[in-house]
Amino acid sequence: MKTDTRLLAGLTELGIPYNDRMLEQLETYYEMMIEKNKVMNLTAVTEKDEVITKHFLDSLCFAKVYMAKRKEGFSPKIIDIGTGAGFPGIPLKIFFPEIQIVLLDSLQKRIIFLQDVVSMLGLDGISCVHGRAEELSGKAEYREKFDYAVSRAVARLASLSELCVPFVREGGQFLAYKSEGATEEIDEAREALSTLGCKKVEILSYTIPQSDLPRKMVVASKTAPTPAKYPRGGGKPMKQPIGVKK
Fold first, then answer.
1. What is the value of pTM for the model shown?
2. I want to staple 42 with a disulfide (CB 3.0 to 4.6 A). Which of 75, 85, 169, 174 is the partner?
3. What is the spatial distance between Cα 203 and Cα 219, in angstroms, rounded to a whole number?
């Protein structure tokens, strides 16, 4: 992967500095993921070229929001909700080593895999947490403690917002990675985002570097505290999203 021109060109296009150590870590991560995928369903995308584009460079499009704020001494706290095989969290930690990040997933087996990855890559300032977002966001050590909540989870945005926004501090942002065709889903979620404290919502439309794959990123800035009753329990964020009429 160190000589993969698509990866290097993509990093350059995103304005992300890199070194040989970062490229080696990414290669090791890829190898560990593919090996584990033989016995555990981590990803349907396994060809290296596709992984580079659809997982690594897609994850690193966080740079479109973060690079303008990146500066000496800035060490933002990030939570990656529904991280799965570690996206976007692991690539973010490799290429932005200053961040402090929590990888959250509800499946213990995935968390064990991610702990192995973190150990093998020698990463610090990263923790892998097994749990459900609707439960953890009610705990004092997690609620409204993060500069960014990020998620590539496939849940509809109105539901995902209720699970993610409670983690974000006032002045922080919730970033949701979405497909180009998510316009209706985004419009549907505006009431939920506002109710949860995100009155300012921007939509970034872009193409994943070194590809023709269009994407949208929802950038929801938190301007007020999330009311204490959110997120609701009993699976309501998924079954009865805020503001969504059946």
1. 0.96
2. 85
3. 6
| CB proximity list for 105: less than 8 A, separation 6 or greater | 82, 83, 84, 111, 114, 128, 129, 130
Tens digits of per-residue pLDDT, 110-164? 999 999 999 999 999 999 999 999 999 999 999 999 999 999 988 899 999 999 9
Evaluate the CA torsion angle 54, 171, 159, 163 in order and state its sign: positive
Q: What is the CATH number of domain 5-225?
A: 3.40.50.150
Q: How far apart, in Å, do the first and last CA atoms of the chain sit?
A: 47
Q: What is the mean pLDDT of residues 17-38?
A: 96
- 204 touches 64 (CB < 8 A): yes
Sheet strand arrangement including 100-105: 126-130, 100-105, 77-81, 146-151, 168-179, 214-221, 200-207
